Amino acid sequence: MNDSSFLKRTVTPAKSLRGEVSVPGDKSISHRSIMLGSLAEGTTRVSGFLMGEDNLATWKAFVAMGVSIHQTGPDSLEIEGVGLDGLVEPGDVLDCGNSGTTMRLLSGLLAGQNFFSVLTGDKYLRKRPMKRIVTPLAAMGARIWGRNGGERAPLAIQGGSLNPITYASPVASAQVKSAVLLAGLSVAGETVVTEPHLSRDHSERMLTCFGADVRPFDGGVSLVGRPRLMAQDVIVPGDISSAAFFLVAGLVTPGAELTVRNVGINPTRSGIIDILTAMGGQLELLNIREQSGEPVADILVRHSRLKGIDISGDMVPRAIDEFPVISVAAALAEGTTTICDATELRVKETDRIEAMVCELSKLGAQVEARPDGMVISGVEQLNGGKVSSHGDHRIAMSLAVAALSARDAVTIEDTSCTETSFPGFWELLNNICGA
Ligand code: S3P
Q1: Residues 154 and 81 sit within 8 Å (Cβ to Cβ)
Q2: Is 173's C-beta closer than 6 angstroms to any atom of ligand 1?
Q3: What is the mean pLDDT of the segment spanning 402-407?
Q4: Does the CB atom of residue 28 touch ligand 1 within 6 A?
Q5: Catalytic hit among 201, 321, 392, 414
Q6: DSSP letters spanning 240-305
Q7: Beta strands, E only, 9-75
Q8: b/e burial code for range 216-240 (CB count within 10 A of at least 16 → b)
Q9: How far away, in angstroms, is 209 Cα from ligand 1 center?
Q10: Residue 321 among the catalytic residues
Q11: Pocket probe mutation, ligand 1, options 55, 131, 180, 200, max atoms within 8 Å of Cβ
Q12: Tens of pLDDT, residues 161-186
């Protein structure tokens, strides 16, 4: 592997893949640690924090709203909480960069704050749908505007007092659910969100740890507003979405045996483990434990013969960020993999159905787009070639995994985007390939 230019990287087939890796902290939990730490009373200490660009955007936004946040180590920080009503009006536009979580969760939180704010993002984020949060927030009485009638950022929010609602979200989205719950923090009374399938529940778990009354029920969750949030020590586990690249790399690379340490295995996120196991992958969960209300394990993976499966329904939100790398596993499995009910993939950092179909096809994969997913027929081996990340971190890393067992080198264009969720990815991959 080399670093021939800032953006372009060439990944050569791996000679071996053995040893241990630790992946950086969970992106979703890191965002929420800053948000809840800022709204709590007292000093919240966070360790295992992901110092990726997305989380730094959240960090900067809270600093701009008057919160003191200090870095105390390579992945640790302290947040001086200002309480539920202690944020101040930012003096400038808040730039969420590439981060949908920053923009959507912050919108919910800001809807109930008594000041004006504007949220923008990079060219990818400004194309993503925002009506999904504008609609429920407006129903709570929020004054919120965006381009295209509220569908696109920049968003402008004049915060104020809101009403509690019961919102039936048409999509299984933790960002929508969390936006409504964070708005509900500012309102006396009960805010309820239901969703068609359970999305990741990190907000619910962390709100509970900070002292809020959050009650999950079958199909939804309720929150009692105006809680006193108390500062906590938060230990962020490794991100299963980052571990996923090494899990698939271990499964598809001949002779591989790899342990990924300290991975969050929250059941709303662990669909990747179930999917890869159903495909015939040898994965072992070791040393299962709990940290800061989240289950954690080490995962041992060995090269396996994979077979195609059907993926749909409840499983989709449980693995929503892993479909680019799942499509790589499927491209190398025996038989056909069908992915359905995954229209949400079209509105991620990029359209991940079109992006993976386009790029995997260049490497000789048999893959076809469907409106709500993909159909992939496995081949024995992928070819080398030249591919592009489409500016999407998870596409870039998935293509790197595809390259490890390809016939020839794969050159990936536009790779700097991996900084959004996985600083150090290329170095880690390089180390493990040479092991
Ligand atoms: C996230 C929720 C998911 C996921 C995203 C992070 C979160 O998005 O794709 O990477 O932290 O809440 P949706 O809620 O839109 O599915």
Answers
A1: no
A2: yes
A3: 96
A4: yes
A5: 321
A6: HHHHHHHHHHHHHSTT-EEEEEEEE--TTTTHHHHHHHHTT-EEEEEEEEEETTEEEEEEEEE---
A7: 9-11, 18-22, 41-47, 68-73
A8: eeeebbbbbbebebebbebbbbbbb
A9: 21
A10: yes
A11: 200
A12: 999 999 999 999 999 999 999 999 99
Closest residue CA from atom 16 of ligand 1:
173
The pLDDT tens digits for 197-227 are: 999 999 999 999 999 999 999 999 999 999 9
Q: Residue 376: pLDDT above 70?
A: yes
| DSSP assignment letter at 26 | P
pLDDT classification of 435: cutoffs 50, 70, 90 = low
**What's phi and psi for 286, nearest 5 deg?**
-120, 150
> Starting from the edge strand earliest in sequence, which strands make up the sheet with 76-82, in order?
68-73, 76-82, 41-47, 233-235
Residue nearest to atom 4 of ligand 1 (CA): 321
**For 33-44, what is each residue's pLDDT tens digit?**
999 999 999 999
Residue keyed to tokens 């660009």? 53
With a 6 Å cutoff on the Cβ, whether 206 touches ligand 1 is: no
For residues 19-44, give the mean pLDDT.
Answer: 98
> How many alpha carbons lie under 13 Å from residue 196 in its C-beta half-sphere?
11
The predicted structure's pLDDT at residue 96: 98
Q: Is 85 helix (H, G, I), strand (E, B) or coil?
A: coil
DSSP state letters, 305-321 = --B--EE-TTHHHHTGG
Three-state DSSP class for residue 14: coil
The first and second tokens of residue 393, run together, are 């971190």
320 lines ligand 1 (CB under 6 A): yes
Across the chain, mean pLDDT equals 97
Q: Is 178 in the pocket of ligand 1 (CB under 6 A)?
A: yes
